């Protein structure tokens, strides 16, 4: 699953879409990473591919890898309306309709000549680093790429949080793999010797950026919320969930973002949407599940046109759950990397996910829960109805369910989604009126 969005225009000039300053910095960072990937061969850099949840960005940087994140490539192609054709190409090549559409969009892109979302070449990886954090598809996805290109693969097996907590032996097991398998493989492929002080330095930067990211996401506790914690947050999480966590550029980006949002709070402003500032906040929602990318703006518009703001989402935690206190710790570098992977949202059991959502509803004073169920994402979809019922029972707040897909445009039915959302907003109104009497 994952997470990095850039505004869909190609140059920094005024256009119909409104953006905050930090959004431009974000866009430049992301484009820069695609350029680094495109020029990796010419600059003699090795290329790694790794998934967003449980990514070991700081560690990969210690070995000078250029870093590609396959889910991010797929969603970028989705936003640029390229994924539909890639998915059909992958299906013609034998992938079933039920396979995660990120996988098919990625495979289709490779079949189409390995041109990345920005139009620059995306080189074949020298290394697939599979940090396995709860989604079985990750494993099958890299198996397919390895089969196709014969890339070297190294796997970090992260035990599932079946009992809802991290035991010391789980952490030790991950650390042992880092020491015995992952680091030696990264050294061998890159030809760079591991320097733990370099890792510590990156982790110092990570912790600073994480602090400002958490502050940003928690700013939605204000009324009106100065941000949208789902549609807006996918821009905010971009740098830290991908190739920039641990860099001074990411630290700078989050500091700028924080300053902008502090100003919005001071002025009592709501979130910036693609059509400008949202005027009146009528509904405050918590959302579970990833967004739809192929109709991202239309989807968001259905919310802000009706005055609905998402104050918290589970998706904005998919590359790291930081709001309950975890930070990368330079004093315990490998242990801390292990705890980061173990704590990923995809690695949490259902009771932990329910607890998290109930906490959000309470702390962000939300009107209810909306689940966007993704047709082809088994990892998020499994158990969502149970989550919905349990959250309703525990909070007494109304919950609703819509269905879309990540990057397959065939599974976004605008009329259906809009109808359901409108009924849900009415339901919230009725609940409020009933409570007032
Ligand atoms: S199934 Fe879901 S969590 Fe797994 S890779 Fe696909 S989108 Fe990500």
Assembly state of the chains shown:
single chain
| Unreliable residue stretches | 1-17
Q: Give the % helix.
A: 40-55%
Number of strands: 10
User: In what range is the share of β-strand residues?
Assistant: 5-15%
> What strand line-up does the widest sheet have?
2-1-3-4
Shape by Cα distribution: globular
Secondary-structure-based class equals alpha/beta
What number is the mean pLDDT?
93
N- to C-terminal separation?
A: 43 Å
Ligand catalogue = iron/sulfur cluster
Radius of gyration: 21 Å
Helix and strand string, N-terminal first?
Answer: HEHEHHHEHEHHHHHEEEHEHHEHHEH
Largest sheet: 4 strands, parallel
Tell me the number of helical segments per DSSP (H or I, 4 or more residues long): 17
Give a description of the structure.
- Helix 1 runs antiparallel to helix 11 (248-266) and helix 4 crosses helix 5.
- The protein has 437 residues and is of the alpha/beta class.
- The chain has 17 helices and 10 strands.
- The strands form 3 sheets. The chain has a 4-stranded parallel β-sheet, with helices on both faces. Strands 8-7-9-10 form a 4-stranded parallel β-sheet, sandwiched between helices.
- The structure holds iron/sulfur cluster.
Features:
437 residues, alpha/beta, four-stranded parallel sheet, 17 helices, 10 strands, 11% strand, globular, binds iron/sulfur cluster
SSE layout:
Elements: H1 21-38, E1 47-50, H2 57-61, E2 66-68, H3 70-79, H4 83-92, H5 101-111, E3 127-132, H6 136-149, E4 152-157, H7 168-190, H8 196-218, H9 233-236, H10 238-241, H11 248-266, E5 272-273, E6 276-277, E7 283-288, H12 296-304, E8 308-313, H13 333-342, H14 350-363, E9 368-374, H15 378-381, H16 384-395, E10 399-404, H17 414-436
The structure holds iron/sulfur cluster (SF4).
């Amino acid at each position: 699953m994952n997470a990095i969005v850039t505004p869909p225009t190609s140059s920094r000039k005024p256009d119909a879409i409104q953006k905050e300053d930090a959004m431009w910095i974000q866009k430049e960072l992301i484009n820069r990473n695609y350029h680094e990937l495109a020029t990796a061969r010419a600059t003699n850099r090795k290329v790694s591919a790794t998934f967003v949840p449980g990514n070991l960005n700081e560690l990969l940087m210690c070995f000078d890898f250029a870093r590609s994140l396959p889910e991010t490539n797929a969603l970028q192609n989705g936003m640029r309306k390229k994924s539909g054709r890639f998915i059909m190409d992958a299906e013609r090549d034998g992938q079933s309709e039920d396979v995660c559409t990120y996988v098919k969009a990625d495979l289709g892109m490779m079949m189409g000549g390995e041109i990345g979302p920005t139009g620059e070449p995306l080189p074949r990886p020298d290394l697939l680093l599979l940090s396995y954090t709860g989604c079985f598809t990750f494993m099958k996805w890299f198996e397919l790429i390895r089969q196709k290109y014969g890339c070297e693969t190294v796997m970090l097996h992260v035990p599932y949080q079946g009992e809802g907590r991290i035991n010391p032996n789980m952490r030790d097991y991950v650390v042992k793999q880092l020491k015995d398998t992952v680091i030696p493989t990264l050294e061998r492929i890159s030809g760079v010797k591991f320097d733990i002080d370099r890792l510590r330095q990156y982790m110092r930067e990570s912790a600073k950026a994480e602090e400002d990211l958490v502050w940003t996401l928690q700013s939605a506790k204000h009324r009106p919320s100065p941000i949208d914690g789902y549609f807006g947050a996918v821009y905010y999480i971009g740098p830290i969930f991908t190739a920039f966590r641990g860099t001074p550029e990411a630290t700078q980006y989050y500091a700028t973002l924080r300053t902008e949002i502090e100003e919005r709070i001071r002025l009592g402003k709501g979130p910036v949407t693609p059509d400008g500032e949202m005027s009146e906040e009528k509904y405050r929602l918590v959302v579970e599940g990833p967004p739809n990318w192929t109709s991202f703006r239309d989807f968001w518009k259905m919310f802000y046109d009706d005055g609905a703001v998402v104050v918290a989402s589970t998706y904005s935690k998919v590359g790291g759950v930081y709001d309950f206190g975890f930070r990368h710790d330079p004093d315990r570098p490998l242990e801390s990397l292990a705890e980061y992977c173990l704590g990923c949202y995809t690695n949490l059991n259902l009771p932990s996910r329910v607890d998290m959502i109930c906490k959000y509803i309470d702390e962000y004073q939300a009107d209810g829960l909306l689940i966007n169920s993704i047709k082809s994402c088994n990892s998020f979809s499994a158990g969502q109805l149970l989550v919905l019922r349990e959250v309703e029972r525990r909070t007494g707040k109304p919950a609703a369910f819509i269905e879309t897909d990540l990057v397959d445009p065939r599974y976004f039915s605008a009329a259906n989604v809009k109808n359901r959302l409108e009924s849900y907003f009415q339901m919230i109104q009725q609940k409020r009126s009933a409570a007032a009497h």
